Amino acid sequence: MMINNIDAYRESTPSALLGLRLTHLSVPSVVLAGESAWLNCSYDQGEDDLYSLKWYKDNVEILGYMPMEPLQSRIKIFNLSGVYIDLDQTRANPANIFLSHTDRFSEGRYRCEICGDGPKFRTARAHKDMTVVVLPPNGLVVSGVSEHRSYEVGDFVNVTCSYGPSKPHADLELYINDMKMPNQAEHTLVSNSFDADGRSMVTKVLSFTVTESHFWKEALKLDCKSLIKVEFNVSSEEIKIMNKGQQVEISGRMDGPQISGSQKEYSRLNSHVKLTCKPSQHGDPNRTPVKTMWLINDKEVTSPRMIKSYQRQENNVTQNFHELRFPLNSADPLIQGFSKGQDLKIRCVSTEIMEFMDVTTRVLMKRGHLLSSASDSALPLQNHENRILGFLAAAYYNFVSSPHSSGSRPVHCVALTIVLLYVAVVSRSV
Question: Which domain-ending residue is among 101, 132, 163?
């Protein structure tokens, strides 16, 4: 019987036949230092009672859950640098650990292990790695140039771009008017250093003399860009063929690629394994798959006779598929031990890259352009002021020239003169 959908196979198979099993492990592949994180370990007890659930980081226990113990002592948390478990959030379901925050010490391999009660004491475990990215609090720092002054042909520019401390190491690139300046370019200096915590500090200095060709629309644009690339692996569930093909076990999902095509048994000597791997659909634009590979007993399959890649349309989207096929009586070194009773553990692994980018821009204006701009902007205000004063002068002339009752003109003229002078002063100050 072929299993095209492993999740459907699990749901259609009675739990009593499967026994205690780990159905899903979720650990974020990449987190930013300071962020919180959820670790999830889902399981199905089947016919077994759960005896214990334990979490480990780098093989050191960080949480133990014993459901058969008295209520006050069921959960034990072990202090470990970088593991900040929020007990209030975790207590409701110890299979889900909430890390209130993370730092560089939080990076490592997290493993969930479940154990059933006697007499069978079935055990299941799975692990996943988490990478912590440390970004500098000040981001990119650009010095040596100012947007508050103007530049002209012949001026010497010495711009410094710094980034750090960060983990992993960042690559810096400098651009003039969107043109990348290569590291080997004249007057370009690059320096790298590391602090006691292994964090990187990178600085790039670019020196040049301004020419007419540097200005475009009376401006020279300088960009400094930093890029951190984090490479990590995400795995599919593991298919384990045992007892010369008479037994097949499928581990829990791992938020990685998906496998289809497994069978419930491969008991015939001439049985063929034919599996298809489809990369995970995480929907994160910052994650880019760069390689997909098959592993048999944790060794990469490289024989072109065993693997094939192709593309196919699904829901109007082009999907990549990777196929693994081989006979169980194959003489390939990865397979030949199977006929002697060796188990086969098969996984599909996708290597992905996540990028963290920052950009800082400085626009240097050509000398004379800023001054002309300032005078041009002041001209409308000056014209507006002249129109106001002209209007006031005309109003004053009409008032003085018009006939008034005897004795009223001097008083009125003095009063109006004071008002007009006050308005003129105010208009100039504005």
Answer: 132
